[in-house]
Amino acid sequence: MIIQFCGMSGAGKTTLAEHTKKKLALLGIPLEIIDADEYRKHIIKDLGFSKADRCENIKRLAFIANKFAQHNIVTIICAINPYEEIRQEVKKTYSDVKIIFINCKIEELIKRDTKGLYRKALLPETHKDKIHNLTGVNDPFEIPQNPDLIIYTDRENINDSANKIIQFIQINHQK
Fold this sequence. Notes:
Blueprint: E1 2-6, H1 13-26, E2 31-35, H2 36-42, H3 51-69, E3 74-78, H4 84-93, E4 97-103, H5 106-112, H6 117-121, E5 149-152, H7 158-172
Parallel strand pairs: 1-3, 1-4, 2-3, 4-5
Helix pairs in contact: 1-7
């Protein structure tokens, strides 16, 4: 099973995936996390943040995720994954692909601002530190049309969210 987490920066995708992995390990279910931030630092350095590059990034991450899934390892792709078109392409390309929307209101994301990105994106246009391509602020984020599951990280605690994902995996994982 490949699970595409999608959600804006700071929504809790990686934190939630790591929490889910620890809980699944106790149940004897292997899980691998493909963290887009980590892969961008080490393997996918050649891509920027244009729509084409973001889509190519997801294609590459999905290819890697599929290698794990072929060995019956549940794999979560943790990426903003802002475009419905590429999410659906991944679902069509590989078998047993699910989409989980990690939803968090923008007001909460701005409060959290774990990486300082929202502060920079909200700077005046002429400011030298302004970010011009932050997904959901000044770059598109397309809400998933028919996600398989929605997690609301601004309303639920980490345990409740992880438990929902674990239950979803247990119900949907093909052995």
